[in-house]
Design goal:
Blueprint lengths: L1 H21 L4 E5 L4 E4 L1 H6 L23 H11 L5 E8 L7 E10 L8 E8 L1 H45 L3 H26 L5 E2 H16 L6 E5 L5 E2 L1 H21 L7 E10 L2 E8 L15 H12 L3 E6 L4 E7 L12
Parallel strand pairs: 7-9
Antiparallel strand pairs: 1-2, 1-5, 3-4, 4-5, 6-8, 9-10, 10-12, 11-12
Helix pairs in contact: 4-5, 5-6, 5-7, 6-7, 7-8
Length: about 350
C-alpha cells in the first residue's frame, strides 16, 4: 500500500513545487509540521532568505527569528490541523537590521488524498507602502478638514467686520436712499456670515436642519428686530439632515425670505410672527417661510423682482425645486418645493 502511494505523493508534490517555482508572489509550501517544503524566488528575495538554506527549516526559524510570532504560530498550527484557514492575517514583521514591514498572510491546507501528507500553501503580501499611503491620505483629509474650518471661521469674522463698517457708514451718510442700500447690504453680509459661522461650527458631513435654521433665524432676529416682544421668528423644521452644500443653499434661501418678511410684512414696526418650516418625506421636501403681516401688495405681476427674489429663484433651481408664493390670510407664504418624481424640473445650472 505504501509503495503504491509514493508515486502519487511525488507527483502531487512536484505539481505544488512547480506552482511555487513559477509564482511571482512570495509563496511558501509548508508541511504539516510547518517546515518549508519550497519557497518561491520572490519570497527569498523579498525577505532576504537564502534559497539554498530554506528547505526543511521551520518557518519560525527563518531570518533572524522575526517570523516567530505567537499569533501566526497558532494560526498556522490550526491550519495544519485542518481546523481553519488564514484568510487575511495582518502582522508586523520586525527584522533586526531593517524597517518594520506590514504583511498580510493567507494560508490554506492542501490535501492530495487520504494517504498523503497535508501541505500548507502560504502567500505573503507586503502592504507596507499601501498602509503608509492610506495613513498619509487620512492625515491629509483630517488636515484639510481643519484648514477648511479655519478658513470658514476667518471668512465669517471678515464678513462681520465688513457688515460693521457698512452699518457705521449707513449712520453717517445724508442720503436716505443710500442709507437704505447700505442697510440692505449689511443684512445680506450678516446673513452670509451667519451661514459661514454655522458651517464652521458643524462637523464635516451632514447638517441637521432644525438647529441650523434656529441659529440662523436667531442671528437674523438679533440684527434686524428691534422689539422682540412685537416680532418673532419661529422654526418648526423636522429632524431632516442634508449635505453641507445643500444646507448652504437652504440657509441662504431662508435668510433672503426672512429678511424680506421683516422688511415688508410689518410696516411701521407692527407686531407679527415669521414661521420657518421644513418637512421631508421619501425624497420630497418643502421649505416654507410664512408671515402674518400685511400680505402681498396689489399687482404683483407688474412688480419688478428684487435682488432677494432673484437669489431665491436661482438657489431653488440649483436644488431642483420650484418657488411658490401665496397669500396666507393674513400674510404671505413662500414655499420651496422639491418633488422626487419631478427632480429634473427647473434644474438648469446657474
Amino acid at each position: 500500500m505504501a509503495s503504491s502511494a509514493l508515486p502519487h505523493i511525488a507527483l502531487s508534490d512536484s505539481l505544488a513545487l512547480a506552482m511555487v517555482a513559477i509564482s511571482n508572489a512570495p509563496v511558501l509550501l509548508l508541511d504539516d509540521t510547518l517546515k518549508v517544503v519550497a519557497a518561491s524566488n520572490s519570497f527569498c528575495g523579498a525577505f532576504h532568505v537564502n534559497p539554498l538554506d530554506v528547505e526543511g527549516r521551520e518557518i519560525f526559524s527563518l531570518g533572524d527569528g522575526e517570523w516567530d510570532v505567537p499569533q501566526l504560530r497558532a494560526l498556522l498550527r490550526a491550519t495544519a490541523s485542518g481546523r481553519a484557514d488564514i484568510d487575511a492575517y495582518e502582522m508586523d514583521l520586525k527584522p533586526d537590521r531593517s524597517a518594520v514591514r506590514r504583511l498580510v498572510i493567507r494560508a490554506q491546507a492542501v490535501n492530495y488524498g487520504e494517504d498523503t501528507p497535508r501541505r500548507i500553501l502560504m502567500t505573503v503580501s507586503d502592504v507596507t507602502d499601501a498602509r503608509l499611503a492610506e495613513r498619509i491620505r487620512e492625515d491629509l483629509i483630517r488636515e484639510k478638514a481643519v484648514l477648511l474650518q479655519e478658513v470658514q471661521h476667518r471668512v465669517a469674522n471678515s464678513l462681520q467686520i465688513i457688515a460693521s463698517v457698512l452699518m457705521q457708514t449707513a449712520r453717517k451718510v445724508q442720503s436716505e436712499e443710500t442709507r437704505i442700500h447700505l442697510r440692505d447690504a449689511h443684512h445680506r453680509v450678516m446673513s452670509i456670515a451667519t451661514v459661514q459661522k454655522q458651517l464652521a461650527m458643524s462637523q464635516v458631513g451632514d447638517v441637521e436642519l432644525r438647529p441650523y435654521f434656529a441659529q440662523l433665524c436667531e442671528s437674523l432676529g438679533a440684527s434686524m428686530i428691534r422689539d422682540h416682544e412685537q416680532q418673532s421668528i419661529e422654526v418648526t423644521a423636522d429632524g431632516s439632515t442634508v449635505t453641507a452644500d445643500v444646507s448652504v443653499s437652504l440657509g441662504l434661501i431662508v435668510t433672503e425670505l426672512v429678511i424680506n418678511a421683516l422688511k415688508h410684512a410689518f410696516p411701521e414696526g407692527q407686531s407679527g410672527k415669521i414661521k420657518v418650516d421644513y418637512q421631508s418625506k421619501a425624497g420630497d421636501w418643502t421649505l416654507s417661510v410664512e408671515d402674518n403681516g400685511v400680505g402681498m401688495m396689489p399687482g404683483p405681476a407688474e412688480a419688478k423682482p428684487g435682488l432677494g427674489t432673484s437669489l431665491v429663484e436661482a438657489l431653488s433651481r440649483q436644488l431642483h425645486a420650484d418657488v411658490e408664493v401665496m397669500g396666507a390670510n393674513p400674510g404671505t407664504r413662500v414655499e420651496i418645493v422639491h418633488k422626487q418624481a419631478e427632480g429634473n424640473h427647473g434644474a438648469e445650472a446657474v
